[in-house]
Structure to design on (340 residues):
């Protein structure tokens, strides 16, 4: 049997993959999908509504057609169904995809442009990277940046949050504290799916307003409260279950271990900790999303690095958890559970 000869096709697809990515990110930034959700339009009208220069507008719109994000019939452009559902800024569902793409265009794309520099130096490439304060201090100094970041965390996490709310045996527990809660979507999904539960979201004080607004939108203000604090130094709020959603990958090994030790000390006997991330597969060869996330942490944080499920289970056992297990959730995300 003759093997297929080597081909540059896959190499070029990956190497030039930034082009379709940037076309989509630019469309989100320019509100193409929001405008077309208001009213379909021909090329000239849409160009004028968006304030674009005539030179590239038509090619831009037709690129979005070829990529499957827009439909064109008799010269009139409209959103494709998935783009209309998730990329129209006026729809609540924008938070599940559009907000993440918005952050990717605003922040991550620039960081990744300096990946080679990050690999040479080991230093983050984020805003104010040359200053001594942490990337979170820099980001949290701007209220609009805070809002975008916290809502984008809902976008990247929502599908996994729904799975955790559905799969974990919540009937055996009465309360949950989501540590590093951001906008609070993990706790929100758990409480929506489990009416007997009460919850707490812990994060830095700057997250309070965005958290409380999102909780109120979901009708959970009577069962889900915000607590301001630093999970490295402050007392953890009492709860039967602690969750770390897309949190551990932000820190180095010692801080990962510290968080798990602190969780173990604060939990009651029989309590549980749930950690989930785009976890690298134990063989470190299959979950591309998990490995790319680790490179993302390299460019975006001072010390963040991703990990395997085997790594996390070992840290849990070191912290004192007697029973551990790992379970795939959706996409690149898996959760690791420890029982005290």
């Amino acid at each position: 049997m003759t093997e297929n000869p080597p081909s540059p096709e896959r190499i070029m697809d990956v190497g030039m993959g930034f082009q379709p990515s940037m076309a989509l990110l630019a469309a989100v930034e320019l509100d193409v999908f929001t405008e077309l959700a208001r009213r379909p339009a021909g090329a000239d009208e849409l160009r004028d509504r968006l304030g674009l220069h005539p030179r590239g507008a038509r090619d831009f719109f037709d690129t979005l057609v070829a990529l499957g994000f827009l439909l064109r019939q008799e010269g009139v452009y409209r959103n494709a169904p998935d783009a209309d559902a998730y990329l129209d800024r006026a729809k609540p569902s924008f938070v599940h995809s559009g907000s993440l793409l918005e952050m990717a265009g605003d922040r991550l794309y620039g960081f990744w442009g300096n990946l080679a520099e990050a690999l040479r130096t080991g230093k983050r490439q984020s805003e104010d990277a040359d200053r001594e304060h942490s990337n979170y201090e820099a980001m949290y100094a701007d209220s609009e940046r805070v809002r975008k970041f916290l809502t984008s965390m809902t976008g990247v996490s929502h599908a996994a949050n729904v799975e955790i709310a559905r799969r974990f045996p919540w009937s055996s527990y009465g309360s949950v504290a989501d540590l590093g809660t951001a906008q609070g979507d993990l706790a929100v999904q758990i409480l929506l799916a489990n009416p007997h539960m009460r919850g707490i979201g812990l994060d830095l004080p700057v997250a309070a307003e965005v958290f409380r607004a999102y909780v109120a939108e979901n009708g959970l203000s009577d069962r889900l409260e915000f607590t301001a604090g630093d999970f490295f130094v402050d007392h953890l709020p009492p709860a039967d279950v602690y969750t770390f959603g897309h949190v551990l990958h932000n820190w180095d090994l010692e801080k990962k271990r510290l968080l798990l030790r602190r969780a173990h000390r604060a939990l009651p006997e029989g309590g549980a900790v749930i950690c989930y991330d785009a976890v690298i597969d134990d063989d470190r060869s299959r979950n591309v999303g998990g490995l790319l996330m680790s490179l993302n942490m390299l460019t975006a944080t001072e010390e963040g690095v991703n990990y395997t499920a085997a790594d996390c289970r070992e840290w849990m056992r070191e912290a004192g958890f007697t029973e551990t297990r790992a379970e795939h959730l959706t996409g690149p995300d898996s959760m690791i559970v420890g029982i005290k």
Summary: The chain has a mean pLDDT of 94.
